[in-house]
Amino acid sequence: MSISPYITASIVIQLLGMVIPSLEKAIKEGGEEGKAKINRYTKILTLVLALVEAIGIYMSYSGTYSSYGVFINPGFGTGALIVLSLVAGTALLMWLGEQITNRGIGNGISIIIFIGIISSLPNVVTTMYRLMFTNAGFSTTGLLISLGLIIGALILVSGVVFVQEAERRIPVQYAKKVVGRKMYGGQNTHIPLKLAMAGVMPIIFASSFMTFPAMIIQMFNANIATQTGFWACIYKFSIATSTSQVGIGYTIANAIVYLLLILGFTYFYTYATFNPAEVSNNIKKNGGFIPGIRAGKPTTEFLSNIMSKLTLFGGLFLSIIAVLPMLMRFTGLNVAFGGTSILIVVGVALETVQQLESRLVMRHYKGFLE
Question: Do 26 and 159 lie in a common domain?
Fold first, then answer.
């Protein structure tokens, strides 16, 4: 089951925070107590979701809801062992992610996802080798296709890095004030607004939402892929994110919904982490102002307008990068260079590098002070 129950649980907790006041307070206030409470709720929900998914997997492979069974003695003891093993595997990954976060560099869950993606790189190299060297010998066409894929991947990575690192700097000036015999303020600074402030989270959220129906349906009908009907259509629509075997119609419909979900989660996650009204109030309290903009409500509207434009562009970029490889499968150039995978890998890599740089700066200042 990998770490997918934890990702789903995180999404559910974030969404519930919009409707449950106590949960919303814990998310917004942050701090050690708030983070501990959210982390505890996420862990409990992860175990519940993992238990449900593990039971469904056992039932689908035991012959209960399918025409075949893989267990010699399907029964309560076998089921309990399989379900416990699957839940323990997810719990172990969740624990490892927490240990990486507390004792390592960056977000542990993101790094586990990152490792899972780059573990497929040897298969990519093998596929390109087979394109260039077939049974008939060296293939010039295969070489050109491999070079095209490598160049395309480099362009894609460069574009992702550019968007992830791009930012709009809003200038802020602070008025001078005299306290006693000292003068404070008067400095100029800026508010850095990232073009893709939500990072890779909208991609992870949207992909989890798209594949969740297929996971649930397959739990109760392991042969759904070979059947027809309403639920078979829903299943094929759901798995179109990761395969081209369901036809171009399902893929296009899936791509449209996938794009809209990414846009929606981009706005949701951005405004959940950046509140223009709160930033505006903080600037006003500290005696600051944005040149040409009055303090208070005009500043809030100015920041909201800029954030809306930046989020729209960033969300569209993420959506196109994630959806384009899905449509490229039908050209015959499918060599596992998924846009979603590249977004996650590049995003996690950049985040890890920034964490390393901040640690180095902290160590430098610590050594200087000592």
Answer: no
Query: Degrees (nearest 5) of the Cα angle 63, 67, 72?
Result: 40
Q: Where does the chain have alpha helices with state H?
A: 4-16, 21-29, 31-61, 76-103, 108-118, 121-132, 140-165, 201-220, 230-239, 248-273, 276-285, 297-328, 339-369
Q: Convert 99-165 into a string of H (helix), E (strand) and C (coil).
A: HHHHHCCCCHHHHHHHHHHHCCHHHHHHHHHHHHEECCEECHHHHHHHHHHHHHHHHHHHHHHHHHH
Residue linked to tokens 């990486």: 100
Domain boundary among 104, 137, 172: 104
Chain mean position to CA 184: 42
The structure's pTM equals 0.70
pLDDT score, position 340: 67
Q: Which residue range forms the structural domain that includes residue 77?
A: 1-104
For residues 205 and 66, state if they share a domain: no
Low-confidence ranges of the chain (pLDDT < 50): 368-370
Q: Please report the pLDDT score of residue 47 as a whole number.
A: 92
97 and 22 share a domain?
Answer: yes
pLDDT value of position 86 = 93
Are residues 163 and 280 located together in one domain of the fold? yes
Both 98 and 190 in a single domain? no
